[in-house]
Design goal:
8 helices, disordered N terminus, single chain
Length: 175
């Protein structure tokens, strides 16, 4: 979900990268902050989902690919929120659950199933994970904005306020 970002230093909106994993209970908790940031900034802040599937969650890599397929079909964040809201069900049911959620959202479930089988989104997920490791992401959620990395995997306390501080500073610099 990282294909339409403005280059750093352009007149485009500041970018908040949200390093996330769809089988992560902490990422589910962080959804309230993500929704609040979207409500506060709208189009003035670009939120990009970045994938960082953790080995301890066996369905996380497939879920990241599914999120990419949802983006391609026009409902990326909606899909992410639907899956994160039911982390326990993903734990239990795996890929059939991912396809079921796509159907619930009115997406092309057959295409979802095919995408998970043919692996068409693996390179995007691998690239995100490699970039995350390169910049020091070790857990999820982790936020990167204005060159600062904020680790929400340890504690989410005060993170939204910190993101808002940085976003406000970046937006003020555009005037």
């Amino acid at each position: 979900m990282n294909d339409s970002s403005p280059a750093p230093g352009t007149a485009g909106a500041p970018v908040l990268d949200v390093w996330c994993e769809l089988q992560c209970p902490d990422c589910r908790s962080a959804l309230d902050d993500v929704r609040a940031l979207r409500a506060r900034y709208g189009d003035r802040l670009e939120l990009r989902l970045r994938h960082f599937p953790l080995e301890k969650h066996k369905h996380a890599f497939a879920a990241a690919q599914a999120a990419e397929e949802a983006l391609e079909q026009g409902k990326g964040w909606e899909y992410v929120e639907a899956v994160l809201g039911r982390v326990e069900e993903l734990d239990r049911r795996g890929e059939p659950f991912l396809v079921e959620v796509s159907r619930e959202l009115g997406l092309d479930a057959e295409e979802f199933d095919t995408a998970l089988i043919d692996g068409r989104h693996i390179l995007i997920v691998d690239a995100d994970q490699a970039e995350g490791k390169a910049i020091g992401v070790t857990g999820t959620p982790t936020y990167v904005i204005g060159g600062e990395r904020l680790d929400g995997g340890k504690s989410q306390q005060g993170l939204r306020e910190r993101v808002e501080e940085i976003a406000d500073r970046l937006l003020a610099g555009q005037d």
